[in-house]
Amino acid sequence: MKPSQLFQTALTPDDLHTFFHEVRQTSERLGEPLSDADATVQSMPDASPAKWHLAHTTWFFEAMVLKPYVPSYEPFDEDFNFLFNSYYETLGARQPRPRRGMITRPALSQILDYRKHVDDALDSLLRTGSDRRIAELVELGCHHEQQHQELLLTDLLHLFAQNPLHPAYRDPGPVDVETADLPPLSFTEFDGAIVEVGHGSVGFAYDSEGPRHRALVEPFRLANRLVTNAEWADFIDDGGYKKSLLWLSEGWAKVQAEGWSEPLYWEERFGQNWTTTLRGFQPLDPAAPVTHISYFEADAFATWSGKRLPTEIEWETAAQGIAIQGNFLDTHRLRPKPASPHLGGLQQMFGDVWEWTRSAFSPYPRFRAVEGAVGEYNGKFMSGQFVLRGGSCVTPPGHIRASYRNFFPGHARWQFSGLRLAEDA
Ligand SMILES: [Fe+2]
User: Which of 91, 234, 345, 417 is the most buried if burial means most Cβ atoms within 10 Å?
Assistant: First the structure.
């Protein structure tokens, strides 16, 4: 097996052209409900303004494809390289991440003009037919933009949650609190084996998903569904946030320093739990999966339950062969959804909430970052973070795979992150 043969494309030129325009239009539709102010403010150093996401994803195509491969391309504005480079050391100096919210100008309308300028240049390039390297980079740019579509929404939710009026991004009507019975928690058993994991089939994957390789798993069991808000409330009522023995040391330090006592965005109001969502302030749905919890909270809950978090290898072993269907961005629900009482087997493996695993985000055996600036995409972040699997209710459909490795630091809470329990068999 060749090392890091990923970032490859299996799309025909026509399909790539269509994919490119679909992705670009989706981002603009996501931005439509936003005022210039909504799109400009930055609520914390980890979250970026929507305007920055719309511009940065455009810069990516300009910096990775147009400038290196199209000699006649004229940049929209040379200063944008400083404003909208995220973290690529090989592509020059940049605006510090915590100060992205200071970019009140260019206005949102100018960013949309910038998008059109780059779209037109890419459209011409894709119409003339391009070589394989360009096609790979354009497809990478599309998947990169889909990642930012999810971040745009999670960052916006964090921003709106700071507003005492709890504005809705979209569709502020109440979402029904589901009354259906949940399937009881049960566990599917998997034999111990030498398994194969990692991306090994045709089609796009990030470099960090490969190479496909063998791994040893001991016998384990995996829960049939995600942990719910009601179960999380039991953890709180039992003093879960007050018992140091449940927590990893770094997590307990966070509980004390940040005063954590419930998931991010929970708030007691009118004698019941409410939560800020992309659809505004809504009653918490007890049957829905808990979300906006850190790795440390997920781990403490699993310990309290007498269980543990799955490893990413266990999760992928279980996910291989399961159809990639679920509550993604295209359902427009914008919130995780309860499991069905009518389905057996493993539910909610894809969509709803990203599932914390106990695995550190580290290189697979024989991994090597690809050459050039795109080699900075994933490889340099392989320290101090944990892997999450399965996608969420704001992941664009088609963006997720069984081998997909998302990653965040253990204290991160603003993503749609939840958990599924596992245990040794
Ligand atoms: Fe990016």
Answer: 417
